[in-house]
Design goal:
Elements lengths: L18 E3 L67 E6 L5 H14 L7 E5 L5 H7 L3 H10 L4 E4 L9 E7 L5 H14 E9 L1 H11 L1
Parallel strand pairs: 1-2, 2-6, 3-4, 3-5, 5-6
Helix pairs in contact: 4-5
Length: 215
């Protein structure tokens, strides 16, 4: 069934899997790598000089007070399901391959701004890796994957390694390149990694054909 377009918003519901399109976007020139964040304390046992600070990841713009919200808020939105919900919600943000990573970045920003903890979010890319992932991998795979296990920040990974990625409440999948077969193989696995919500940024026709056959 063809999708209808809606205003872009990221929210969760207790209903079964579905694909909800957001507003179409045109391809954007990839944004530059965010500025450096304060250098992290060197990991114990790492010889040599302190490594340079990686590209900054975003944090919520609004400080929380009292009991923090753990789900993206939207007007008249239903109560979000728990992370243990059997079937995550699926939302689609239409984007070209060139604009998919920018769309994923915007989705992450919105999730953080509306209460999601950074450690709740996993971002998968089907084409070129996110600049943060490329930077961290330059220091070795062991240190890179250790950050996934720490779960204290948004984690970015190549969809080719989705089998190694551990589940998080929210998974954002950027179809920013790669073959159709590779995307078709990675998307159903990405769905199993999402505890409550899978956000897919890519071509609607391709995404519907993959999820329709694989779910």
């Amino acid at each position: 069934m063809p999708l209808t377009h809606e205003e872009p918003q990221i929210h969760e519901s207790a209903q079964g899997p579905r694909v909800t399109p957001a507003a179409s976007r045109t391809a954007q020139t990839p944004r530059p790598v965010p500025g450096p964040r304060p250098a992290a304390v060197p990991r114990p046992g790492r010889p040599g000089p302190v490594r340079p600070a990686p590209p900054a990841q975003r944090v919520p713009q609004q400080a929380t007070s009292g009991t923090p919200s753990v789900t993206p808020a939207a007007p008249a939105a239903p109560t979000a399901p728990s992370v243990s919900a059997a079937v995550p919600q699926i939302q689609l943000i239409p984007a070209s391959a060139e604009g998919a990573l920018d769309a994923a970045e915007e989705a992450v920003d919105l999730l953080l701004d509306t209460g999601r903890a950074p450690g709740d979010i996993l971002v998968l890319t089907s084409g070129d890796p996110h600049p943060w992932a490329a930077h961290e991998l330059s220091f070795g795979e062991s240190a890179y994957w250790a950050q996934q296990d720490a779960r204290d920040d948004v984690f970015y990974a190549d969809a080719a390694h989705v089998q190694r990625a551990t589940g998080r409440p929210v998974v954002v999948f950027a179809a920013n390149g790669g073959t159709a077969d590779a995307i078709a193989a990675a998307l159903p696995v990405a769905l199993t990694r999402a505890g409550a919500l899978l956000v897919v940024c890519g071509d609607p026709e391709r995404i519907n054909s993959v999820l329709g056959a694989g779910v």
